[in-house]
Description:
Blueprint: H1 3-39, H2 56-72, H3 78-96, E1 105-108, E2 111-114, H4 115-120, H5 124-149, H6 161-172, H7 187-215, H8 220-223, H9 226-236
Antiparallel strand pairs: 1-2
Helix pairs in contact: 1-2, 2-3, 3-5, 5-6, 5-7, 7-9
Amino acid sequence: MTEQSRNDDLVISVIQLRKLIGWLGVALPFLCLAWALGTGLTLLGSISAHYYTPVHGAFIGILCGLGVCLVSYRGFTDAEDRLASFGGLMAFGTALFPTHYSEAAVVVKGEYETVVRIILGIDPSVSSSIHGICSSLLFIVFLLFAAVYFTRTSSSPKLSVESCSVTLLRTVVLQVAEKDKPQGATLKKVRRNKIYRVCARLIAAAILAVVAGKLWPSVAFFSQWVYVWETVAILAF
């Protein structure tokens, strides 16, 4: 086997691994739904709350797998690689520090004790805060990849913080002309970019909906549909 053949096999293996992680990510919200339907229980308000159900193994495993995939990701620039590695760390944090769930308590020595305090030895509110920060930043990483980095080519000019912000803003507010063609892009790439921008807008809309639910919990459309918004963002990415 030649050196080129070995390199090609490695590339194929990485692509297959990333596809597998992608499909597992897509499966996560549906695993939660299948558990709820199969047990006759009510679907919990968010995907994160299912950490305390029998699908917690899949929840942690899929997020950690996504973290490994992002850390191993190599893009066109060092900035893209660093963003992916940061997203991987956020995926690990989301998996390892569960959100607070008031019903997740057991009796220990005659007193109710939360699962988080038993397993991690920290206050549930601290774990929930870390979880919230990590998951929020992870979705923002998803948004940046879909809106900015996935639409570029190897010959695209170097991005600055300002140009990255402008590209993100223009994509989200629908000001990017679909005929815009990045440097070195083929017709297929232009078509893929249209899909990337639609997905970026879906992720942005889902993030804004979750934020609205936190700011206005009395508005049921936002606060009681967090599971749906999380699912939209995951499927879009």
